[in-house]
Design goal:
The protein is an all-alpha fold. The chain has three helices and no strands.
């Protein structure tokens, strides 16, 4: 096969096409430069975005680390409260029958008790140690001695009656006793 030999017209046509291609190439250079500038700006924005993503990832890692530590502490706290909760449950379960029986009484007490009564009860409780001491040191010994005093009081009353009878037998004492009785009646004692 034979190759065609180019003639001068073909060369002119090739040169025209080369000039046109060169023009197109030269016309594309500013667009290419603009595209490169846009690509550089885009790369800068991508770099900034990647940097922000890294900062966010580091923050997220820190949050995850702190959350893991908090979860661990919460698990430890929960584990330490489990025995207390079990004891508390057992205590409440053991008290339930008594509380069920006391419920009506507590309801009535809550409905009928006024604040002034609670204040009086608190004041009484505050005084109980002093009252208990006085009872033990003053009242109980007197009560113990009343058993021995009673016969003496009876003897004293008998002697007083005999003395009154003897005084009544003295001349003029009847008038004196009548005047004493009248004075006592006017004072409201008789």
């Amino acid at each position: 096969m034979r190759l065609p030999v180019p003639d001068p017209r073909d060369l002119l046509h090739v040169l025209e096409r080369a000039a046109s291609a060169t023009e197109q190439l030269l016309a594309a250079v500013p667009r290419t430069v603009a595209l490169l500038d846009d690509a550089a700006a885009l790369l800068a924005r991508v770099d900034a975005l990647v940097e922000r993503i890294e900062v966010t990832r580091a923050s997220a890692d820190e949050v995850v680390r702190r959350t893991a530590a908090t979860t661990l502490r919460a698990d430890e706290l929960l584990a330490s409260t489990t025995p207390v909760m079990q004891r508390l449950k057992a205590l409440v379960d053991s008290m339930e029958p008594s509380l069920q029986k006391l419920q009506p009484t507590l309801d009535r007490l809550a409905e009928t008790t006024e604040p002034k009564e609670v204040d009086a009860l608190v004041a009484l409780i505050d005084r109980l140690p002093v009252l208990a001491l006085k009872m033990e040191t003053d009242v109980v010994p007197v009560l113990d001695s009343l058993g021995t005093v009673a016969p003496d009081l009876h003897d004293l009353l008998d002697a007083s009656r005999e003395l009154n009878d003897m005084l009544a037998a003295l001349p003029g004492m009847g008038r004196v006793m009548k005047r004493i009785d009248e004075e006592q009646a006017s004072e409201g004692r008789g």
